[in-house]
Amino acid sequence: MHPHHHAKTNPDKPAYIMAGSGETVTYGQLEARSNQVAHALRGAGCKPGDTIALFAENSPRYFEICWGAQRAGLYYVAISSRLTAPEVEYILSDSGAKLFIAGASKRAVAEEVKALTNLEHYWSIDGPMPGFAPLETLRGAFPETPIADQMAGTDMLYSSGTTGRPKGIRPALEPDMPIDDTNVLIQILQAFSGAGPDSVYLSPAPLYHAAPLRYCMTFMKLGATLVIMEKFDAESLLKYIQQYKVTHMQMVPTMFVKLLKLPEEVRKKYDVSSLQWVVHAAAPCPVPVKEQMIEWWGPIIDEYYAGSEGNGMTWARSDEWMAHKGTVGKAVHGEVKICNEEGDEVPVGEEGQVYFAGTTPPNYHNSPDKNEAALNPKHKDWSSLGDVGKLDADGFLYLTDRKAFMIISGGVNIYPQECENIMITHPKVADVAVIGVPDEEFGESVKAVVQPMPGIAPSEELAAELMEFAQANLSKIKCPKSIDFDPELPRHPTGKLYKRLIRDRYWGKKDSRIV
């Protein structure tokens, strides 16, 4: 499966539509332009196994580049458009990128990056930039037919850096792999989503992130039409579902929260009955939030647990989740193992670090220490993403939290996710992070940092109200001992919270960059 098959059978069908501008790229146009890009990449000296980097916001040119690199056997690095020039330079250097493509909307940062680097080629999209060759003009000199030496390339994505410098995940490339070869994600999506040429898939997230990029690429392999939001907005998402009769969608829990906090009259204004399948991941979803979404949209909401590393996956359909509330599903790729610090499996129902067995462990580029740290101490073919959780008697996995975010207060282990899941349901809370802060007596104490809803002013009374709300729903030891307020928490557009940055404020650490 590959877009080039759909270009032959249905060239005028929209491959994707930009939701805001309405610009449409058909499968025939995608085929022609991605072939031109592949020729241009060869002309720039990029050989199979080489790396290029793309630094842009959501754009109609994004997939032309990714498919061009994919059919040229290259690694393509999608860089977060939120990064600073030194952060982008680090990724270019670490990945060994030979060519840098930047969106004109990121001109200021891109020009800084050019001054910090010494690559042979710098290309621009969506507008001119000094010192950057415009790809839209450049590709016009090349044929619209395939290059002679097509082979499958793949993405090389960098972790979001919630706990430090990002690491590139570099899967092995098979020599001469056909560009239309299948993979695990295609098989899983076909089994669970029922997606095909008649599907309309809405992507509300930045394309540089793993799930949006991979899901979009996979739905194009299946011949669907994609609707790409330039930026997420809760009401706009509902509008586009109605306008384009969207059938499939991938989301994150923070989007659910924002949808549910829209006024009731706004939520009822739009027809979402076209939806057939929605999947979410990236962060744990509070049980009340998931319950309300299923009540609103029906039992069409799936959930999975996986990482960019591709070392395993669990999956839960709506009916499975309703019978095992809070689960992230059963293993569909690999086998889940729950282990203690020594690497031994623990009994069913006990918490421990989550490992996947029977899969390929992560390959973090230029990071042998991180590769080793991901492996079980006793079973070197079992690998972990660093999460803590437990299995129930039916084999369903429940995540507790990231191991790195655990709070140890007076010798007691406290996982902040449980408290966050409760507090986010309060009508006056827009976002919340629960962290451990220094405490002379207990080592650490629990603190909540709250972003109030618009129009709600921070106050001692509000803090007391929220603490009382938490204590009514959780044991006191898991509840915050203090609450601070922040006008906006540092959260990635994909939904991941940069908790490290918040925690560093209270521990006196200076390196608080988002990387």
Write a brief structural summary.
The protein has 17 helices and 26 strands. The chain is of the alpha/beta class and about 525 residues long.
Describe this structure in words.
With 515 residues, the chain is of the alpha/beta class. Among the domains are: 27-179, Rossmann fold; 406-507, ANL, C-terminal domain (GMP Synthetase, Chain A, domain 3), CATH 3.30.300.30. It contains 17 helices and 26 strands. Strands 2-1-12-11-13-14-15-16-17 form a nine-stranded mixed beta sheet, with helices on both faces. β14 (277-280), α12 and β15 form a beta-alpha-beta unit. Pfam families: AMP-binding, AMP-binding_C.
**Spatial extent as radius of gyration:** 23 Å
Low-confidence stretches: 510-515
**Portion of residues in helices?**
25-40%
Structural class: alpha/beta
CATH architecture assignment name of the domain at 27-179: 3-Layer(aba) Sandwich
Beta-strand residue fraction: 15-25%
Q: Specify the overall morphology.
A: globular
Largest sheet: 9 strands, mixed
List the helices and strands and how they pair.
Layout: H1 3-9, E1 14-18, E2 24-26, H2 27-43, E3 51-55, H3 62-71, E4 75-79, H4 85-95, E5 99-103, H5 107-116, E6 121-125, E7 133-134, H6 135-138, E8 154-155, E9 157-158, E10 168-169, H7 184-193, E11 200-203, H8 210-221, E12 225-228, H9 234-244, E13 248-251, H10 253-260, H11 264-267, E14 277-280, H12 287-297, E15 301-306, E16 313-316, H13 318-323, E17 330-333, E18 335-339, E19 352-357, H14 368-373, E20 387-391, E21 397-402, E22 407-409, E23 412-414, H15 417-423, E24 429-439, E25 443-452, H16 460-471, E26 482-485, H17 499-507
Parallel strand pairs: 1-12, 3-4, 3-5, 4-8, 5-6, 6-7, 11-12, 11-13, 13-14, 14-15, 25-26
Antiparallel strand pairs: 1-2, 9-10, 15-16, 16-17, 18-19, 19-20, 20-21, 22-23, 24-25
Helix pairs in contact: 1-2, 2-3, 4-5, 10-12
